[in-house]
Amino acid sequence: MTNGSLATRARRLRDLHAAPEILRVVNVWDVVSAKAVLALEETRAIATAGHSIAASFGYEDGTIPLETTLDMVGRIVEAAGDVPVSADLDDGYEDPAETVRRALGVGIVGANMEDRLRPLDESVARVAAAVRAAEAEGVPFALNARTDAFVRAGQRPAEESLADAIERGRAYLDAGADVVFVPGLLDAEATAALVEGIGRVSVIGLPGALTAGEFEKLGVARISYGPLTQAVALTAFQDVAKSLYADGSIPSTTRPLN
Q1: ∠ at Cα 12 (226, 1), nearest 5°?
Q2: Which of 1, 31, 108, 237 makes the best surface tag, with the fewest CB within 10 Å?
Q3: At a CB cut-off of 8 Å and minimum separation 6, what does 155 contact?
Q4: According to the model, what pLDDT value does residue 153 have?
């Protein structure tokens, strides 16, 4: 895989982040789930869910070895062809620069990296290191720098989490990130404040959250769904298993997607 083709797909992903339309990415966790999404004409990019890949291999979220993640995402990249793939790379592991170099090696052109609420200067340095590593390879890597200002907030007031997210988000964009991912159950007021305060913002679609169209009207750049897509698939699987135990049958509406 040449750096030219990597750079082309990376630029396409960055263009999708910059477009006025919100980028909707449906998270996948293996090749067959990726192929099911790739078969849809609406698919513009693929994003992997780290939690879902970890669960598939029996790991708790955030504990899967980088080698295992890269092996699976590399297989997804191969299946995706020209469609850009953004990977969940947890917190970037011990050396974010080396992690990005290895990610590029399997064809990944964008990634989520979470800050886990490390001190701000340390978090910014990790973002900058990841960006520099991609630049050294000649690839405009689409880093979706995640701040855990809401999901690791504990009991602090929501306004403090909002201010923290904005401060971190601005710093990550200044360090070269392409977009800032702020997971959490965000209402319209908080979302508007994040977009105004940071600029290019990415969110997660959760039960009870705003719709993608509503987020788009507020200026959000990207929406993804994390491990929830796998949860939907497993819910359907468990439900049909229960039906089969009760002498049911495979639904006639089942499509041969595998």
Answers
A1: 90
A2: 237
A3: none
A4: 85
- Helix or strand or coil: residue 144? strand
Annotate 131-184 with DSSP letters as a single string.
HHHHHHTT---EEEEE--TTTT-TTS-HHHHHHHHHHHHHHHHHTT-SEEE--S
| SS3 (DSSP) at 140 | coil
Give the residue-averaged pLDDT of 68-79.
Answer: 98
CB 189 within 8 A of CB 197: no
What is the topology classification, in CATH, of domain 3-236? TIM Barrel (3.20.20)
Q: Which pair of structure tokens corresponds to residue 91?
A: 């917190």
Which token pair is 195? 């977009």
Residue for token pair 């997804």:
76
Q: Is 80 exceeded by the pLDDT of residue 67?
A: yes
pTM, 2 dp: 0.95
Percentage of residues in the chain with pLDDT exceeding 90? Answer: 97
Rounded mean pLDDT, 110-128: 98
Domain ranges of the chain: 3-236
